[in-house]
Amino acid sequence: MTPGSITVTPVTPVVSSPVPEASQTPKPTRKPPREKSCLRINFEVGGDEARNGRYDVIEVGGRVLYSWTAQDGWKDSGWIREIKLTHRSVYVQVIFYPDDSSPPITMRILNHAPGTEYGWLTEGICHAIEVAWP
Does domain 37-132 have CATH number 2.60.40? Predict the structure, then answer.
């Protein structure tokens, strides 16, 4: 090199990564709302019929889910919708309270849950509770 000469060094441009862009703010996953159940009290399978009085569908544990007042000869309650359960599935029993104030009667459930004497309800499903006189 001679004095006063300049050395030229080629410059290689550095490619930088693009600046990351912020993504949308994440939204928390929400649980879907719990579905309600529906039921009907039905005497047809057992060949019986209702008697004058009130029939309570009760969760095992005591919470009344629905009360149906029937007259002699009726065969079913019709579908009762929008039943809110304590848990996703529950065992139930049907108790009859006669109009004459005699003692209540626990109805026999013909389509009971396996291994139990209880009927059952599950969210999002309609259940016919087939009952008969004990």
Answer: yes
